[in-house]
Design a protein that fits this description.
It catalyses: alpha-D-glucosamine 6-phosphate + H2O = beta-D-fructose 6-phosphate + NH4(+). By secondary structure, this protein is of the alpha/beta class. It has 8 helices and 10 strands. It has a single domain, classed as Rossmann fold (3-Layer(aba) Sandwich). It has a 7-stranded parallel β-sheet with strand order 1-10-9-6-2-3-5, with helices on both faces. The longest helix has 18 residues.
């Protein structure tokens, strides 16, 4: 894993966006793995600014969202279909027909999950997967005890996850209890992964994912098995990393030809 520690959340967004931008520049028809939540918003804002300046073109790219709530109306502003349209598709100039979100309203949710997983493989796989991480270590909606081999499937959201997401709803009772999420096995098949985290609330999860043992209790630790995973965090999120000084040193001395920022 490559660990990048930066001064501010704004820098986290800029540097992670540079990695995504490099992938799209090298391959204009890249397949993007799209996360929602507050953590990746800085990435999307930075990418949108570069699109507006004419530096990047996402018109040929496609995307697969990580997850979707079960049962939430498609028109609800907090459905991930609506969030992806608002925060990603429109500002980046993606073709809406090329971006898919799991169907949390399907009559047969299990079949919808299997079909979605298959569609990612049919598309040739994800070229770069954007991720955040929950305070309990979840990535996507793979809550603690998720199998590292899991595929896209129905999951019950942990109470702590519903509590964390309640800020997006008028009433905590409105937060759905279930979701469709890409599995850890699905995520690990992405060719590259960039995970971002900001703030002290994520410090324990980052330390467990990066330096802790491989454990289903911290789903993010599965990324230790990935060949090209880059973890970009601010100083607060890095506060519990035992080897923080080493990560700062290695990034500062990274060869110019390997840099993406």
């Amino acid at each position: 894993m490559e660990i990048v520690i930066l001064e501010s959340p704004a820098e986290v967004g800029r540097v992670a966006a540079a990695l995504v931008g490099k992938v799209v520049t090298d391959r204009p028809d890249a397949v993007l793995g799209l996360a929602t939540g507050s953590s990746p918003l800085g990435i999307y804002r930075s990418l949108a600014a570069r699109v507006a300046e004419g530096e990047l073109d996402f018109s040929r790219a496609s995307g697969f969202a990580l997850d979707e709530y079960v049962g939430i109306p498609l028109t609800h502003p907090e459905s991930y279909a609506a969030v992806i349209a608002r925060d990603v598709i429109e500002p980046l100039g993606l073709d809406p027909a090329r971006v898919r979100v799991p169907d949390g309203r399907a009559d047969d949710l299990e079949a919808a999950a299997v079909e979605y997983d298959g569609a990612i493989r049919t598309a040739g796989g994800v070229d770069i997967q954007i991720l955040g991480i929950g305070a309990n270590g979840h990535i996507g909606f793979n809550e603690p005890t998720s199998s590292f081999a899991s595929r896209t499937r129905i999951k019950t959201l942990a109470p702590s996850t519903r509590e964390a997401n309640a800020r997006f709803f008028d009433d905590p009772a409105q937060v759905p209890t279930h979701c469709l999420t890409q599995g850890l096995g699905t995520i690990l098949e992405a060719k590259r992964v960039v995970l971002v985290a900001q703030g002290a609330a994520k410090a324990h999860a980052i330390a467990a994912a990066v330096e802790g043992p491989l454990s289903a209790m911290c789903p993010g630790s599965a990324l230790q098995l990935h060949e090209h995973a880059t973890i970009v965090v601010d100083e607060e999120a890095a506060a519990e990393l035992a080897l923080a000084e080493y990560y700062r040193y290695t990034y500062a001395h990274k060869p110019e030809w390997q840099r993406f920022d």
